[in-house]
């Protein structure tokens, strides 16, 4: 499926190819000037690889067109507005991204979310969040600002107690069992979820592993009012604000919600996981 992101990469690649041709260079010649492998030139030109800003500056210099850097930077920014690599977002650590999350939460009346394999950040205990950030920093090899990130995430949770806001989340039951922390920390996290069931601003549904599903789940996502959808992958965070995408994810949320249980039924599922941990 062709996406706006892919079309943007292909358009940028075509422009870079145009600059190469105008400079009278073939792929091999440009690669030699840049000190790149020829395959990288090919991938960038074909839209199969997103160039960095440094790549664009080097390309402009190598083709004798340093004056087009501003244009190329604008094209790249247009792509990254919706598709943001974690490597760049977390270049200074996790706290800044959590500050962005606070801003989005403050400007949103209703957040709907689906999580398949983890507890939503809005519901995490400090210890669970601490482990999450530490593991993310190690995996992505980004700066460790774990304590600052934890404090910011917990500050974001103040919105859960703001009158007029609404948080509607669906958890796949398997997410309750996905233990990435010690049993004690995981147990405390289950206690936290149980305490949130019944809060007037929170609607927490759990989709049982045995539930009949209208559509098989794929990945987690968050919907901010009806203006924005945020989807996380291993390497990228997508911010989708076009009407077609928002409607599609709203439909996905609604279909998944049909299979969820709420209130005491949700608490029993969570409590069953809590009890299996054998922690006092």
Provide tags for this entry.
52% helix; 434 Repressor (Amino-terminal Domain); 7 strands; alpha/beta; 7-stranded mixed β-sheet; Endonuclease, Chain A; 13 helices
Descriptive account of the structure:
With 280 residues, the chain is an alpha/beta fold. It is elongated, with a radius of gyration of 22 Å. The protein has helices spanning 4-22, 27-34, 38-45, 53-62, 69-80, 86-89, 95-106, 126-140, 146-156, 173-177, 183-196, 243-257, 263-276; strands at 83-85, 110-115, 166-172, 202-207, 221-224, 228-232, 236-240. Strands 1-7-6-5-2-3-4 form a 7-stranded mixed sheet. It is 52% helix and 13% strand. Helix 4 (53-62) runs antiparallel to helix 5, helix 7 (95-106) runs parallel beside helix 9 (146-156) and helix 8 (126-140) crosses helix 9. It contains 13 helices and 7 strands. The chain starts with a helix and ends with a helix. It has 2 domains: 4-81, 434 Repressor (Amino-terminal Domain); 86-276, Endonuclease Chain A (Endonuclease, Chain A), CATH 3.30.870.
What is the terminal separation in angstroms? 50 Å
Query: Which series of helices and strands comes N to C?
Result: HHHHHEHHEHHEHHEEEEHH
Query: What average pLDDT do the residues reach?
Result: 92
Going by CATH, the homologous superfamily of the largest domain would be Endonuclease Chain A
Q: Tell me the name of the CATH class of the largest domain.
A: Alpha Beta
The overall number of domains is: 2
What is the helix tally? 13
Rg calc: 22 Å
Strand order, sheet with most strands: 1-7-6-5-2-3-4
Helix content bin: 40-55%
Given the helix and strand composition, which structural class is it? alpha/beta
Number of DSSP-assigned strands: 7
Percent strand: 5-15%
User: What low-confidence regions span 5 or more consecutive residues with pLDDT below 50?
Assistant: none
CATH topology of the largest domain: Endonuclease, Chain A
User: What kind of sheet is the major sheet?
Assistant: 7 strands, mixed
């Amino acid at each position: 499926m062709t996406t706006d992101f892919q079309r943007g990469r292909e358009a940028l690649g075509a422009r870079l190819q145009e600059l190469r041709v105008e400079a009278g260079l073939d792929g091999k010649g440009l690669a030699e000037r840049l000190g790149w492998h020829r395959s990288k030139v090919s991938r960038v030109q074909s839209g199969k690889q997103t160039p960095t800003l440094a790549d664009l500056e080097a390309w402009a210099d190598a083709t004798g067109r340093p004056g087009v850097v501003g244009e190329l930077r604008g094209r790249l920014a247009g792509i990254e507005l919706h598709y943001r690599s974690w490597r760049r977002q977390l270049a200074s650590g996790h706290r800044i991204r959590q500050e962005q999350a606070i801003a989005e939460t403050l400007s949103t009346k209703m957040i709907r979310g689906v999580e398949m394999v983890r507890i939503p950040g809005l519901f995490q205990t400090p210890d669970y969040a601490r482990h999450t950030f530490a593991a993310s920093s190690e995996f992505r090899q980004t700066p460790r600002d774990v304590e600052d990130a934890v404090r910011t995430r917990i500050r974001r949770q103040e919105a859960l107690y703001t009158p007029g806001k609404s948080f509607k989340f669906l958890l796949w039951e398997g997410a309750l069992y996905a233990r990435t922390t010690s049993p004690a920390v995981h147990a405390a996290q289950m206690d936290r979820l149980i305490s949130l069931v019944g809060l007037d601003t929170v609607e927490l549904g759990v989709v049982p592993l045995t539930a009949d599903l209208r559509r098989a789940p794929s990945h987690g996502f968050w919907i901010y009012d009806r203006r924005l959808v945020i989807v996380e992958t291993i390497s990228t965070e997508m911010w989708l604000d076009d009407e077609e995408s928002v409607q599609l994810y709203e439909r996905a949320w609604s279909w998944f919600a049909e299979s969820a249980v709420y209130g005491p039924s949700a608490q029993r599922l969570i409590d069953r996981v809590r009890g299996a941990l054998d922690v006092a």
